[in-house]
Amino acid sequence: MGYEIYVRSFADSDGDGIGDLAGITSRLDYLSWLGVDALWLTPFYPSPGHDHGYDVSDYRAVAPHHGSLQDFDTLVSAAHQRGLRVIVDIVPNHTSIKHRWFASARRDPDGPERHRYLWADPGPGGRPPNNWRSHFGGPAWTLDEQSGQYWCHLFLPEQPDLNWRNPVVREDFESILHFWIDRGVDGFRVDVAHGLFKDTELRDNPQIAPLADGMHPFEVFDAFEHRYDMYQTETTDIYRRWNHICAPRQVMLLGEVDAPWPDRMSHYVAPGVLDQGFLLWAARAGWSPEALLKMVRVMHEGLPQGVSWVLSNHDRPRPASRFGGGEVGAQRALAVTTLFMAVGGTPFLYQGEELGLTDGTLRHGTYDPVPVETAGAIHGRDGCRTPMPWDTSPHNGFSTSDPWIDSEPRPPQQTVAGQRADPDAPIHRYRSLLALRRKHPDMWRAPLEWIETSDPLVAALRRGSIALVANLSDHRTHVSLGSPGWQPVFANRQGSRLDSATSEAISVPAETTVVLTRGS
Ligand code: BGC
Fold this sequence. Notes:
The protein has three domains: 2-93 and 167-433, TIM Barrel; 100-152, Oligo-1,6-glucosidase, Domain 2 (Oligo-1,6-glucosidase, domain 2), CATH 3.90.400; 446-518, Golgi alpha-mannosidase II (Immunoglobulin-like, Sandwich), CATH 2.60.40. Helix content is 27%, strand content 15%. The chain has helices at residues 21-26, 28-34, 69-81, 100-107, 167-182, 217-222, 235-246, 262-268, 281-284, 289-302, 319-322, 326-340, 369-373, 416-420, 426-439, 442-445, and strands at 2-5, 38-41, 85-90, 119-120, 141-144, 149-152, 187-190, 252-256, 276-279, 307-309, 348-350, 448-451, 458-463, 466-471, 477-480, 487-491, 505-508, 512-517.
């Protein structure tokens, strides 16, 4: 089981209000107690912070507010002592506008450095070269007044896209991989892994839906088929090369692949390419059980071990908020996470998900720099980025001074310390679930057989000595498991009444996922 750490907001050791690597080291015992196996750290590299670290200005260093390379080495060795693996984020689609590569590229339009990035002459009337859009709104092109050419950026203008057809870019990134592997990392999470290459002729993307005034930039982005700005076949050649570097050292490659279709995902996630892909679909969806169960089956059939299911990350409102809020939302989130344990590759929790947290409440202002840069068009990433609530000391134990993001303190029952003291709290359900997955590798390794149910809101499966029934409907259901002798060992609801034992059918309450074992 993996655990995403949003470094800015996890634990601050030096009292500057920003989370850091030493803070993470000080909380490793907690993560071991919880039972996770691997940590994914969001970017901690030097960055001017236009996209909170996803605009990297030096790929081989640590931003001073997050610590130092020595802190990184200490963290890795302390994690390894506890059997925890460390996965770092690598951002290859774009750099920061402040990276020295971009400075040289801009300075000398005729120099060789220019070709590290994507430049193009204006279209008719001085317009951008084609119809590509930035995820964050507006065209994916910004005019460089000095040279009269546009540079390409699928995100902010301050995140210029690299030119992956340039061998120098490939070589640089391979050397960056070596740099972190030599420091002991166990994996890379590849940001925007379906990006990187662009069409050589810079053709317009086909428009597939009408545009209207006031549309959210994500909707505008989705109104185009991304045939030419993303998903280019050459991208997988890069990951094959990376796999040659990583596989012999048992270093995992985990891509953020925005492709909720197995045929597309399987270009990237395949033997010799990326080991697993984060499927973001479920981290974006509201409470839509039928669509979710369909997606789980389709993806599992196409890529049985390749999908790393996540219900949340640092980019989207927390699942408890999206699924109805409060206790209801938290129960639904755990019901789905329980299913994720048995249907794919390595699932990940996002920090605080184990507490059943809803989004934090901001006191004032907006902190994600992207809304500021996009004049408010993109919003919604602050609530899931508020500090990890450790206890009821000032700033919930995150920092000794004001955190970088000004949010309401969490009450005791939403803190790690408060929940550890309460045997009925969500943290103990998550911990039991993680322990169960560890104890029963059949849960993710044995051949999966779906048990047919007549209700599209109910999924049931067997994997060796494990059976699982996810009843995401709003009423109790009965499922025949096909053979007797199953014992329930986990349910997302404390004290759920589960009839079972030696019978071959189980009755499962509404919005409840049950795991059963046999013969162990
Ligand atoms: C990251 C976002 C970031 C974007 C651009 C995403 O995958 O999760 O936080 O804004 O990439 O780098």
